[in-house]
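Subject: Sanity check before I submit

Could someone independently write out the structure tokens for this chain? I want to compare against mine line by line before I put it in a report. The sequence has 305 residues.
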Amino acid sequence: MDNLRDGVTLMHDLIDVFLNYLSVERGLSNNTISSYRRDLNKYAIYLARQKISSVANAERETITDFMFNQKEKGLAAVSISRNLVAIKTFYRFLVKERILKKDPTSVIESPKLWKKLPEVMSLAEVESLIKSPNLKRSQGIRDRAIIEMMYATGMRASELVNLKLEDVNLEVGFVRCLGKGKKERIVPLGSKAREALVRYRDKVRPKIAKERVVSYVFLSRLGKSISRQSLWKIIKRYAREAKIKKVIKPHTLRHSFATHLLEGGADLRSVQEMLGHSDISTTQLYTHIHKDRLKSIHKQFHPRG
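---
Independent answer below. Compare away.
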């Protein structure tokens, strides 16, 4: 029992140093850091129970055995993948700081979690969704701009509802997003999104805001920032009107944005930057979606598929 406690304690010291790095150097949110702590604590306990007293003594097989152990305990695939991301990031940090000489996770691939991600829309489905709002109505003009913006930038729902006028440059064509951990990124705006935003800005927003000074871009009928719940309802409503049979949520537009960029030939690093992912392993999940879509198309249309 003493050896178990000692092993966990040593590991926890390294975890604390790592989490401090994530907080101070990379500016990750408290929720993300808490998630890393939980996942790494589980790994530390597993190592100790396997009588592995030092993180340096863990091999690739040790880590894969840990993942299978979590699966046997009934942990969902998405949670197992999150565990692995935490462990891989932890080891990369230890090697970078020269605490370890080698990274046993470098040859371990993440589980194929793309099946667990929200479905990706086809280009035709995106087009149908965008065209659903009625541009003869003020609400339709606003909603078209919202959908265009989300698909053009891959913004998260929270980023869109908190977007302010000063964050959008329609002349140059970019939007400034404040993502997780208050990390700022600049994302280009396409011509269609700019057109929809200009229409909303000039014809609708002044009527909603009236004489009030409101800094948020997208406003509710009461002249306040729209809520995430309202955004969810907007997307669901137009997906239904467009007769899209898939489950469509605001985040589906983000997934579609990333997948369609990769399908168009964009490099992974550029997509990572536009999505605001701090770790490229998160962005790599989209390559799995992309590969699966190609396989499905091949199977469907190739005469010997």
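---
OP: Matches mine. For the report I'm noting this point. Residues 2-111 form a domain with the DNA polymerase; domain 1 fold (CATH 1.10.150.130).
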